[in-house]
């Protein structure tokens, strides 16, 4: 093993932000080699991030409820700045996230998908781009399927949730919706900016 010096430890700290103990331990696991330690830590951090946000690249069928929970979990866990949802390269939803999203407000994301008939009784593949505050973009493919009755019920439920939420906080939050229909009449791009802090306060009352 190469000698582990203070200089090496500080190099690791400077590049990774680890503590002295963590940097020393990482060097020990890589025989005191600074370059190998940095490569090791880079891979380790990436794996931890994938596990943390549950970015499973394997495509699988999910219900609307499962998709809703996945969205809620990744937003609550990390520093997410934007969520974009596409189907066949067409942007359907583009949502800047400026705070934690309450469960009810997830409907703001899902309602446009249901409104344009993306989620139907037939399995539909969509692509989600999740952007973190540091600019890192994660691309995840999801295949969503519900029965026709479930879709109808959930469309009504989500629309009602959004309407109720926005009516309650209309004097305290701003919601901007922009619709782009340049490709076709039934293809829309929805863009929202929501003051989620105010929504959470309303929920706690």
Automatic annotation (TrEMBL):
UniProt keyword ATP-binding present: no
Protein keywords: Membrane, Transmembrane, Transmembrane helix
Domain DUF4342: 58-131
SUPFAM superfamilies noted in UniProt: UBA-like
InterPro entries the UniProt entry points to: DUF4342 (IPR025642), UBA-like_sf (IPR009060)
Protein origin, superkingdom: Bacteria
Residue ranges of the TM segments: 91-119
Listed name of the protein: DUF4342 domain-containing protein
Organism, as annotated: Clostridium fallax
Organism phylogeny: Bacteria, Bacillati, Bacillota, Clostridia, Eubacteriales
């Amino acid at each position: 093993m190469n000698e582990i010096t203070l200089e090496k430890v500080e190099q690791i700290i400077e590049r990774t932000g680890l503590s002295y103990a963590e940097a020393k331990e990482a060097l020990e696991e890589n025989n005191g080699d600074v370059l190998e330690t940095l490569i090791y830590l880079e891979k380790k951090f990436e794996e931890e991030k994938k596990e943390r946000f549950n970015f499973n690249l394997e495509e699988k069928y999910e219900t609307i409820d499962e998709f809703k929970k996945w969205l809620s979990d990744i937003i609550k866990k990390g520093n997410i700045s934007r969520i974009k949802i596409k189907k066949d390269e067409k942007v359907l939803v583009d949502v800047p996230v400026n705070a934690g999203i309450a469960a009810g407000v997830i409907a703001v994301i899902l309602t446009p998908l249901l409104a344009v008939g993306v989620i139907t009784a037939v399995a539909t593949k969509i692509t989600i781009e999740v952007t973190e505050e540091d600019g890192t973009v994660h691309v995840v493919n999801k295949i969503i399927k519900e029965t026709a009755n479930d879709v109808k019920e959930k469309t009504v439920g989500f629309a009602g949730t959004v309407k109720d939420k926005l009516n309650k906080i209309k004097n305290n939050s701003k919601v901007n919706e922009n619709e782009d229909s340049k490709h076709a009449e039934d293809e829309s791009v929805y863009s929202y900016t929501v003051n989620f802090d105010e929504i959470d306060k309303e929920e706690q009352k």
